[in-house]
Amino acid sequence: MRNLRKLTDDQLCTMYGTADEATQDAIRRECDRRDHLDRKRAHVKARWDAAVAEWLDYAHAQWLAAEQACRGHLLSKAGHSAGIDPRDLWTGTTARAARYASEELLDFWAVSPRITRTQYVDLLAAARRAERTPRAS
Q1: Which of 35, 96, 91 is closest to 59 using CA atoms?
Q2: Residue 88 domain-assigned?
Q3: 137, part of any domain
Q4: pLDDT in tens, 54-90
Q5: Are 121 and 48 in contact (CB under 8 A)?
Q6: How many angstroms separate the CA atoms of 90 and 116, rounded?
Q7: Is there a domain that residue 86 lies in?
Q8: In DSSP terms, which residues pair with 101 in a beta bridge?
Q9: How many domains does the chain have?
Q10: Alpha-carbon distance 128 to 124, whole Å?
Q11: pTM for this one?
């Protein structure tokens, strides 16, 4: 029997109609496996999308706090010269943010660290793992 994993859904459907019972069972198992993977991918994507939405809210709130704490002075001269939008300092690499951030903003981040999207998602995942880990009494 050919490796069913290499076949497309259409190929499996075509094969199913003329296959013997054992092959039909194998095709059903392969379809179940694919369905399970699709559900798992959808779940992971939904979790990622939710985490990113939370991070966007966090980053926006931190930007507002930085605006107030720094009295609007968020960009360095290089940031102004490059035409950077101050809100963009919360996205992209840490090196880019540090290059274009004002001294006031760097001081703000020293007290209230800038968290990247990936760091935020990692923190949420760590919190979920901690919730699942049984605590010793």
Answers
A1: 91
A2: yes
A3: no
A4: 999 999 999 999 999 999 999 999 999 999 999 999 9
A5: yes
A6: 7
A7: yes
A8: 75
A9: 1
A10: 6
A11: 0.71
